[in-house]
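User: Assemble these into one structure.

Assistant: Restating your components, then the assembled model:
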Amino acid sequence: MAKRIDVKDLDIYYGSFRAVEGVTMSIEPRSITALIGPSGCGKSTFLRSLNRMHEVIPGARVSGSVILDGQDLYGAGVDPVSVRRHVGMVFQRPNPFPTMSIYENVVAGMRLNGRGTRKAAMDEVVEGALQGANLWNEVKDRLDRPGSSLSGGQQQRLCIARAIAVKPDVLLMDEPCSALDPISTLAIEDLMDQLKKDYTIVIVTHNMQQAARVSDRTGFFNIAGTGQPGKLIEMDETSTMFSTPSNQATEDYISGRFG
Amino acid sequence: MTTPATTQVGGPLDQGPPAEPRIGSRNRTGDKIFSGTATAAGITILVTLAGIAAFLLYEGFPALVAAPEDVPGGEGFWPYVQPLLFGTVLAAVIALIIAAPLSIGIALFISHYAPRKIAAPLGYLVDLLAAVPSVVYGLWGIFFLAPQLVPVFQWLENTLGFLPFFEGPTSATGRTMLTAGIVLAVMILPIMSGVNREVFLQTPRLQEEAALALGATRSEMIRMTVLPFARSGMVSGAMLGLGRALGETLAVALVLSPAAVISFNLIGSTNSSTIAANIALNFPESSGLAVNTLIATGLVLFTLTFVVNFIARAVVARRKDFSGANA
């Protein structure tokens, strides 16, 4: 299931504006890769380019390549819809579908693209995904309640369950804990640690302690100034990044001297 | 002369140096004016509504209790109003059946499919249609639409004649219930598309992205997020359109040549009129109890719109927990 991602010379543009420049990195399977950096440095844009979600903004395009286990996600004839089936995403704010029940939220992805599934099989997937997201015990007696009736932390775990129910190869997380309290955050972090057995996880976070706690490798993005493109400054093992980074800007950022 | 000025302003607690503003002071004039204005506006609408209801009841009551032979038609009020009520509902329902899917399509095209350069002008154009006076739609219905529809009606009679709606014989002028319904549909299309477009555009971005990130195509994303989110807004839009269709006077009065019948035949030459059109057509020549009768039919229309609105609200409220507003 988990696959590696190789990004080579990736430039991301919105219209004529170059938002991210020249990113080359390898993302290992069954590991957590954290992306840190100041606001506006392009780390979220880069994350979204890994499942072509940045394309929802008109005029967005890339040059360079993103290779998922040998296949270029930006190759000719590649459908962004099918890219997103393989590369799932969890967002900054929990966003369960408010008009669907907990159960329907989990199977929402399975029902797409005309893939009808038998009820028994769906029940199995729902239980598996919710258990995978550490939510099953809390919601198993009220699967028919709306997803919006859950607490924020539960909603975010429901979103993770929804993302893993379609068995993606990669899970992208865009500041998944920024709207959550510390206890819910801890629950999500524990969950990420379990999920990395099966998935390649990439997380964008503003919380450097979080990056240090959960990730195996960390990439630091920075921006030279307003209107300049964001760049990947340095990427290394998380322990190295937080103890002996090789770049001065990384050290300044990590030690809290700016950002 | 020596009395301190402060005692007159505040009362016993207000004595002492007035220099520091105290916590809890409630002297917010702007706030009061604002809330007062809003409350007054809210009350005005209730008073207006009550006033109209009272007028309709007071003026219509004589017709409700009059001897049957005194009411126009000679059979009493209920036999008089029944075909009109039937015609009103039938024309409005035809209009709604045509306009509802069309308006959703137009609104979706503008909000989610059209390139931005086309979407904005198209939106203005649709809004502009709402400003065309109804008499123009009526004339368009008589002189353009009706003759064009005659062959269509003929075809309907020949192929679907086994249905009561199309049993014929086809009207030679094309001025039929179906024509009136189509004209009404065109009339209510702008308001319904406008409301639908606005609610579609309000779908939270985060919801749409959630669907897309799961691998939804654009149409799947719309079915998963936009339409469920917009559900109550679409009902509101349909109610606005239905309200206009139920009450529309001139366009129907021009298109239909009325008869006091109840007939499901949509393409024949005898059609029931609608309440509003009937009032407009007959009011100038009426006097005495006939006027009361017309006003009483207005009361029936008033009640009908109320009932329709309540039903719509109930439909929306039924799945309140699952509302898109919880996003």
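Residues 5-254 of chain A form a domain with the Rossmann fold fold (CATH 3.40.50.300).
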